[in-house]
Specification:
The complex is a heterodimer of chains A (about 220) and B (about 240).
Chain A: H1 2-9, H2 11-42, H3 46-61, H4 64-70, H5 72-75, H6 79-103, H7 107-115, H8 120-151, H9 163-171, H10 175-202, H11 206-215
Helix pairs in contact in A: 1-10, 2-6, 2-8, 3-6, 4-6, 6-8, 7-8, 8-10, 9-10
Chain B: H1 2-5, H2 7-25, H3 30-72, H4 77-89, H5 92-101, H6 109-133, H7 137-145, H8 150-184, H9 192-201, H10 205-233, H11 235-243
Helix pairs in contact in B: 3-6, 3-8, 3-9, 3-10, 4-6, 5-6, 6-8, 7-8, 8-9, 8-10, 9-10
Classes of the chains: A mainly alpha (about 220), B mainly alpha (about 240).
Chain lengths: ~220, ~240
């Protein structure tokens, strides 16, 4: 037990913890910056939307360890490799939910907005995006949880992170170290899930929440 | 000077240079790959498929009855979703570690298969319930009016109609499981991850690139296959689309 607690007090624990969060946060941020504009861009065309969703599905099929390893020859070992690979993993769930979210907005609602004299841009930012927000955030949540899990594998490309302790635990056959690493990652993933679920609720427009309640 | 007079030789030398420098970097050693394909690559590939198919089979056997129960008795659906959602959230590398060091399983395929089953449950159960919910009440009424018993309705009407949605769940679960099984090699479960970890240890790119590319292809082929099955199983949706 003491050995277990000591892991958290090691000087490298904080830095690995920060690296883990840093790669995860940057990957999700870049993922949003890439996926959301594409989702908005393809929104007007049926075939472009279908194409984006199909590419997203293919992207989601790529195993995370495979992607990390395939970036090896390009980026070599380390942080850049992990960040680039994990960003690629972060994009598909956000892209799919972004496209689906924007397209599921009721056409009558859009007609009404047009009838009120809103411009295309106003409809997008004032009507479509807010209505799609819960679905978009659900995508970001899926992506974030998956990213936190994938960064655990960054240890295999020498980028550090909490996976280091799991590997060290296996190598030294130390239950304390392995479990400390595993629990730290698990707790981080669960906290991420809870935070993003909260954001998802927070970004649901008031009108939609009321409508959902009435629907029940 | 000579090379200027004789361009083909120069080109040849250049190509040879390129080829050799490529070989020095040693990204893909095709000769090695050809020599060891049958001995190393194919067994790892088959073991990978074995792990995933067994896990998905077990997950199916658990989630269909559990999903039927959840659809009938709504009060157990939320706790089941929370529990399986919890499993789903735990990063796979951490899950393997906890199964070995905390639960006390020895390394090998067993903890890997258990983890893969746990990851499949959320999606599978959710899709069984969604599938059963999507059966129109009128259809069930009609079946009852024809004198079918509850059991006959379940097996003859509800489950067949829910099948496309259940298969859609299997598709997501299968793709997820193929990706996670790669990491299972770290705990001696075998599979394509073996090539990746061996390649990293030996600093031999041919190995890990082969493993990574095959794992990716396997996931994509599985995804496309399930899409095809899904379509085959719901001919009515095609007919309906054709009619409009």
């Amino acid at each position: 037990m003491q050995e277990f607690l000591q892991v958290f007090q090691r000087s490298d624990f904080i830095s690995n913890f920060i690296v883990h969060i840093e790669i995860s946060a940057l990957a999700v941020l870049f993922g949003v910056l890439v996926a959301i504009p594409i989702a908005i861009l393809v929104n007007r065309s049926d075939s472009a939307s279908t194409l984006a969703i199909n590419i997203g599905n293919l992207g989601r099929a790529i195993p995370s360890l495979a992607l990390l390893v395939l970036m090896f020859p390009i980026f070599g070992l380390g942080f850049d490799n992990a960040l680039f690979a994990v960003t690629l993993l972060a994009i598909p769930p956000i892209l799919i939910n972004g496209v689906v979210g924007l397209r599921q907005v009721n056409p009558q609602t859009l007609d009404a907005a047009k009838g009120m004299g809103l411009s295309g841009r106003q409809i997008l930012s004032g009507v479509q995006v807010p209505i799609a927000a819960p679905i978009i955030f659900a995508g970001i949540r899926t992506s974030a949880v998956q990213v936190v899990a994938s960064v655990t594998l960054a240890t295999f490309v020498g980028a550090g992170g909490l996976g280091d302790y799991i590997v060290e635990g296996f190598q030294r056959n130390s239950t304390a170290i392995a479990v400390a690493g595993a629990l730290a990652v698990a707790v981080l993933a669960i906290i991420t899930e809870v935070i993003f679920a909260g954001l998802e609720r927070g970004f649901t427009p008031k009108g939609l929440r009321i409508a959902a309640k009435r629907g029940k | 000077m000579d090379s200027a007079d004789d361009p083909p030789t120069a080109t040849l030398a250049l190509l040879q240079d390129l080829f050799e420098s490529q070989e020095d970097k040693g990204y893909i050693d095709w000769g090695w790959l050809a020599d060891n394909f049958v001995e190393d690559v194919i067994p790892a590939f088959l073991q990978h498929i074995f792990l995933c198919v067994v896990s998905l089979g077990i997950a199916l056997v658990i989630s269909v009855p559990l999903g039927i129960l959840c659809a009938r008795y709504r009060s157990i659906y939320t706790p089941v979703t929370i529990l399986t959602g919890f499993f789903y959230t735990i990063p796979s590398f951490a899950m393997f570690t906890l199964l070995i060091f905390v639960v006390g399983l020895s390394v090998g395929p067993t903890p890997a298969i258990i983890a893969l089953v746990l990851y499949s449950l959320l999606v599978m159960i959710r899709n069984v319930v969604t599938g059963l919910d999507s059966v129109p009440p009128e259809t069930k009424d009609a079946a009852r009016g024809m004198g079918l018993t509850d059991r006959q309705i379940l097996f003859g009407v509800e489950l067949p109609l829910a099948l496309p949605v259940i298969v859609a769940g299997m598709r997501i679960a299968m793709v997820t499981v193929i990706g996670i099984a790669v990491i299972g090699a770290y705990i001696d479960a075998g599979g394509l991850g073996d090539l990746i970890f061996d390649g990293i240890d030996r600093d031999f790119p041919t190995l890990y690139i082969t493993g990574a590319v095959l794992a990716t292809l396997l996931a994509i082929v599985a995804d496309l296959t399930f899409v095809r099955i899904e379509r085959l199983l719901s001919p009515w949706s095609r007919r309906a689309r054709g009619a409009t």
